[in-house]
Amino acid sequence: MLITWCLTLVGAVLIFIDVGGWVSSTPSLIHAIFGLCTTVLCFIQPIGAAFRPHPTARNRPLFNWIHWLVGNAAHICAVLALFFATPVAKAELPPWLDWILFGYVVLYVAVHLCLTIAGCISDSKGAERVNTFPLKDLNTSRSALNSVERRLDAPFSGFRKLLLFIHIVGVTAVTAAIIVIICLAPIEAQLSSLQKKIMSV
User: Fold this and answer.
1) Do residue 158 and residue 179 come from a single domain?
2) Residue range 41-87, pLDDT digits in tens
3) What distance in Å separates the CA atoms of residue 44 and residue 25, rounded to the nearest whole number?
4) Where do transmembrane segments lie in this chain (predicted)?
């Protein structure tokens, strides 16, 4: 969280230095508004976490919801800022970048829904397993209990690990693609130039 916090603030400062202040044109303005919202929310999030109440405190559920809301709002604003960066002339990004971002959104929503559903099913299965735990196992030695605990992993844990792996690979691929597209902007001209060089060899 601290690394994200620092990089977001540094990025915001560098953008203001490069642009020379605030923007006024419509495509850039919408992108800038979402970018600024992302920066502000990202700045608030770790500060709020520092004042996290004790787990047993009465207002801990309220904190959890606020912390969750701020984090998700920052994420949504960041994704929207990326979508609205495509029409910004200075960025020189190709229109098909939106399809890559759309693919990321679909992947994120699908993984999030699957993990949520799997978590709910796992909780209910775990409760059933606790209620039906064999009484004879309570009289076994400590080493035997440790062995049982290791074998009794949470239900659907393998499925959730697979989803996490797919999510990490997908996010890494999308991030790498966006970085390459931004660094080589305008990428279509760069690819055309590279193709001409290869054909001329």
Assistant:
1) yes
2) 988 988 888 888 888 888 898 999 999 999 899 999 999 999 998 88
3) 28
4) 5-23, 29-51, 63-84, 96-121, 162-187
9 CB-near residues (< 8 Å, 6+ apart): 39, 42, 43
Which tokens in the block code for residue 165? 């792996």
* CA distances in angstroms from 87 to 17, 161, 162, listed in the order given: 21, 37, 36
Residue with tokens 């993990």: 115
Average pLDDT of the chain to the nearest whole number: 82
Distance CA 131, CA 181 (A): 54
> Distance between CA atoms of 179 and 174, rounded to whole angstroms?
9
20 CA to centre of own chain: 30
Q: How confident is the model at residue 139 (pLDDT cuts 50, 70, 90)?
A: low
Q: Residues 181, 125: one domain?
A: yes
Domain that holds residue 150: 92-201
- Assess contact for 177 and 100: CB atoms under 8 A: yes
Structure tokens at 135: 């009484």
Give pTM, 2 decimals. Answer: 0.73
Total number of domains constituting the chain: 2
